[in-house]
């Protein structure tokens, strides 16, 4: 079972926007050392919409898989708003050794619930690899409702969902509808503890990029039902959860990792480097959480 703290890994770049392979290797080592339970390579936090597929997107997945070498699962971001593209990308990720794929709902198209069901069913039937649905309507303007998740959960290789609405009533509805073997993950750092205490199996996390050990400890405590310990860690991390969304993700988290000396100062248009007015609030949150001296 893939569970626990799963980092939504950034894709490090140089100042010109080119991929920084040395920094990628450094980040993977950082997560292996700091207790991260799985790595999501080239999800939307990894700026997947702006990466060339063959030379960048697929190469990031291949390099992460090779470096991890089976020590923890590697989940590849392969979602697209073209069903045929999503099939192609999911097959390619399987071919380079990914353990599972994360598929965001089709953005911009605004499909019906039946369209969502048929989209994800088609990908699952086309590629025999464990697949995780990803619902984040705040970014995609496409909301996959709990009844659609319930239908999709009956497909053997659709193993779970990243529920990133931050709505705990929604999460409870999903949990009530699916079998106990279907994995419900948080995609919202601020509410992840509470979702796991409801029965969720982990957190696909932005904060884990910056504070992997704390997020790993938080997830482990929450999944053991140790609410007081998990909430105490979460209270300590809350300033960071909030500050990492001062501007659109992954703008703040890339700046934070640069501040920690883990990567350069690259990001790809249409995203821009963190605005100067946000530097000190984010720096202060990092100090409060102990990730920056």
UniProtKB/TrEMBL annotation:
Molecular functions per Gene Ontology: 4-hydroxy-tetrahydrodipicolinate synthase activity
Gene: dapA
Binding site for pyruvate: 45, 204
Enzyme class: lyase
GO cellular component, one term: cytosol
Function: Catalyzes the condensation of (S)-aspartate-beta-semialdehyde [(S)-ASA] and pyruvate to 4-hydroxy-tetrahydrodipicolinate (HTPA).
Family membership noted in the UniProt record: Belongs to the DapA family.
InterPro entries: Aldolase_TIM, DapA, DapA-like, Schiff_base-form_aldolases_AS
Source species taxonomy: Bacteria, Pseudomonadati, Pseudomonadota, Gammaproteobacteria, Pseudomonadales
Subunit structure: Homotetramer; dimer of dimers.
Enzyme Commission numbers on file: 4.3.3.7
Pathway stated in the Swiss-Prot or TrEMBL entry: Amino-acid biosynthesis; L-lysine biosynthesis via DAP pathway; (S)-tetrahydrodipicolinate from L-aspartate: step 3/4
Keywords: Amino-acid biosynthesis, Cytoplasm, Diaminopimelate biosynthesis, Lyase, Lysine biosynthesis, Schiff base
NCBIfam families cross-referenced by the UniProt entry: dapA
Species of the source: Ectopseudomonas chengduensis
BP terms from Gene Ontology: diaminopimelate biosynthetic process; lysine biosynthetic process via diaminopimelate
Active site (UniProt): 134 (proton donor/acceptor), 162 (schiff-base intermediate with substrate)
The keyword Amino-acid biosynthesis belongs to this UniProt entry's keyword annotation: yes
Highest rank taxon of the organism: Bacteria
This protein's name: 4-hydroxy-tetrahydrodipicolinate synthase
The reaction(s) this protein catalyses: L-aspartate 4-semialdehyde + pyruvate = (2S,4S)-4-hydroxy-2,3,4,5-tetrahydrodipicolinate + H2O + H(+)
Site residues by UniProt (Part of a proton relay during catalysis): 44, 108
Subcellular locations according to the entry: Cytoplasm
A Pfam family the protein falls into: DHDPS
